[in-house]
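Q: How would the C-alpha cells look for this protein?
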Amino acid sequence: MRRVLGTAVAMALLAQSPTLANEETGEPHLVTQEMMDRWKEDLSNWGRWGPEDEKGTINLITPEVRQQAASLVTEGISVSLEREISPVHIAPDAEGPLPRAAVIQRMLSGWPTRTTGSSDQLTISAHGYTETHLDAFGHHLHGGLMYNGFPAEEHISMEEGLSKGSIAAFGDGIFTRGVLVDIPALKGVPYLEPGTPIFVEDLEAWEEATGITIEAGDAVFIRTGRWQAEATLGKWNIADVAAGLDASVIPWVHDRGIALLGSESALSVKPLPETTHITDPDDYLPLHNLALVTFGMPLIDNADLDELAETAKSLNRYTFLLTVAPIRVSTATGAIVNPIATF
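A: Here is the predicted structure in C-alpha cell form.
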C-alpha cells in the first residue's frame, strides 16, 4: 500500500536511517581508489550476457518486466522528461567552421523563397550538460577498454566512429518500469544545494516513505531540483558543482539490478566529498563512469524531472511506464532523447 509522502515523516525516516560505513574502516561513506578498483572487478558485468554483448543491463528488462511495466498505464497521462531544445541558428549560406553548440539549425529551404514548405539540417552534439541525452558504452573507457572489454583502439575511430558500444545497441527501445526518486521532496526543500551528496540511506528513506522497492530491470531517475536551483540561484558551472549520487552508492546500485539511471546532470556529485579519495583520471565521475564501463548501464543525463515530480505528487504515485527510443546511428557515442513517463 502506498503512503502519502509528508515532510515530517520523511525527515524522521532520514534521522532514523543507519549511516552506512565501510566495513573495513568504519568510516562513513569512505570510498578509496583501492575500493573503486576492486568494484571494477567484483561488480563487473563483463561476459555476464556473453562476450559479444552490447546491451549490458538492458538485458535485465525481460519480457516479463515489460509486461508488468505496461500494466502501470492506468491514468493515460504522459510526461516528457526532456529539456526543450533551443538551437543556435546559422544562415543557410554561412561559411567556415560551425559554432560550438549542442544543437545547430541551418535552414535549407523555406518562406519566402519556397512557398510549399521548408526543410532544415540539424547538427547535434550528443553530450554535455545541457541537452537530455542517452550515453552509449563507447562514451567512457577504463584503461582504454569500454564495457565488456572491447578495446578502444580497435573499435573507436575519429574517421568512422564506433564499431562496438554505439547507441544502435538500444535500437529496439527501452520499455520498463520507471521510478522517480525525489530527494528534495524527501528533505522538504525545493532543491538540493549544489554539491550535495546523496547516500544509500537517502534512497532507502525514499523507498520507505513511498512504499516502493527498487527492483531488477527498473529505470531509476534521481531528482535533485537542478533546474529549480538554476532558476533561483542563476547558472553555474554544473561540470564542477552538482548535487548527485555519492560514490558509496555504487554497490547498492549493482545489487538492486537497476537497468538504467537518469539524473538532472551527470549523475555523480561534484566536487567529490571529503570521504571520497579517488586518484584515477578515469574515475572523475565515479558512479557515472563506472556504471557505463563496469556495469554496462546506459545513462540519461540532463533530464528535466520537474513536471514528472509534480505529476507524481498529484497522483501520489512514483512509478510509471518509461519509454525511450534513441535514433539508430550505428557508430554514435550517444543521442539526444525524449524519455516519456506514462501513468
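Confidence is low (pLDDT under 50) at residues 1-21.

DSSP finds ten helices and 18 strands in the chain.

Upvote if useful.
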